[in-house]
Amino acid sequence: MPLLHDDFAWLRQRVLRLSGLVLEHDTHALVETRLASLVREEHVADVTALVARLRAQPENTPLHQRLAEALANHETAFFRDASVFEALRTTVLPALLARRGRTRTLRIWCAACAYGQEPYSVAMTLAEAGLLITGWTVRILATDFSTRALGRASEARYDAREVHRGLTPLLRQRYFRQERDGWRLNEHVRKPVEFRPLNLMDDFHPEAPVDVIFLRNVMIYWDAPTRRAVLARVRRMLHPDGYLVLGAAEAAPLAEDGFSRNLIGQTSWYRPSPLPGATAPVEDTSRGHSRPAATP
């Protein structure tokens, strides 16, 4: 039985609360296709029966989590948007290394990391810069709301198609070893990456400030109120002189979100700036003086 109008409306509201994903009105067929595997796993007749089962359960049950995961887009690749990693290598990293010379610590957060290609691309970039074998402490926090995606990401195993998307032959040879069922990333590149479940819809609490936040190709699926709320939480996680990078197709943060845009090479990076009404300058706690947010 095709997805009924009332069931689709219920799905739209439930998924919006669970993951922030906005299902457009004309996506009935796409939703049915993506839920086909969940229909089979639950041994129900069709998507209508699946929605009936979902309606009968509280929102915090595993089936609702699997619903959100089934409808999420986990498409990604190594070094996706190569210009971002070029800017990281040539401009962002040197600037941070100069400012973190006293603590010799770097913290990077890859939000919505899917199957791990992005945080591992960051780790390879740092390895190429020699930061994984020097006296620096490097932590790459990789989060996603999908526990299934995180499970696969932590294994760091990829098939031939995946390792040929974005990886040069040199990087593949240098950082991967071929196994019977695919390719696996070397241990010294996996080691600084910590995977952790985190739903960006939740009011997560900041830990130690991070220096760089990758929040790419996820906000395009959200509505404006969700983007504003998540950006406010993300800003609390970012070091006062840190960097935020978004996907190329995503709307830029507004001034009232507390970010200023910086063009680095061919990519836009965002720096924390004083929120409207703030009187104190942004303070660089690592060097003990204020620094204009617009400088690299």
From TrEMBL:
Q: Which SMART domains match?
A: MeTrc
Task: State which Enzyme Commission number(s) the record gives.
Answer: 2.1.1.80
Taxonomic placement: Bacteria, Pseudomonadati, Myxococcota, Myxococcia, Myxococcales
Print the keywords alphabetically: Methyltransferase, S-adenosyl-L-methionine, Transferase
Q: Catalyzes what?
A: L-glutamyl-[protein] + S-adenosyl-L-methionine = [protein]-L-glutamate 5-O-methyl ester + S-adenosyl-L-homocysteine
UniProt organism field: Corallococcus terminator
| EC primary class | transferase
Ranges of residues in domain CheR-type methyltransferase: 1-274
Gene Ontology biological-process entries: methylation
Name of the protein in its database record: protein-glutamate O-methyltransferase
Database matches in Gene3D superfamilies: Chemotaxis receptor methyltransferase CheR, N-terminal domain, Vaccinia Virus protein VP39
